[in-house]
Amino acid sequence: QEVTARVFMPLFECPSQRCKLNKAKGNLILQLRASKFLKFQEVKLQELAEHVPKGHIPRSLTAHLRGELTRKVAPGDVVEMSGVFLPMPYFGFRAMRAGLVADTYLEAMSITHFKKKYEE
To answer: CA 93, CA 86: separation in Å to the nearest integer?
Structure first.
């Protein structure tokens, strides 16, 4: 079973056409040993304090890191990220209330380090 959404719910009954024709409800058991996992990390980027006007709150942005980009950044690092700015639609009850409004995130393609830990 391929997971393409943010939420994963394993299958418990056989969804194949063969099972439906035979009217058999085969129970499925999740086998983690046979599963293939991809590296994924969600990070929050925040504007540097020296770039924020006095009396304002720093802007922040969510970024998704995949594959080799995971574990490249840690809290406090000063980095520059480039990537694709994408919408992330709401789901469930929140989607009904939001209408056409969607949240946004950055699908990171490259990371450039400037400092390992941020100090004022």
So the answer is: 21
Pairing of strands 103-115, 78-88: antiparallel
Neighbouring C-beta atoms of residue 65, cutoff 10 Å:
22
- Is the entire prediction scored with pTM above 0.70? yes
What residues does 113 pair with on adjacent strands? 79
- State the CATH number of the domain containing residue 44: 2.40.50.140
Residue 92 has pLDDT above 80, yes or no: no
97/103 Cα distance (integer angstroms): 13
Asked whether residue 8 is assigned to any structural domain, the reply reads no
Does some domain include residue 3? no
Tell me which H or E stretch contains 97. Answer: helix 93-98
pLDDT score, position 119: 65
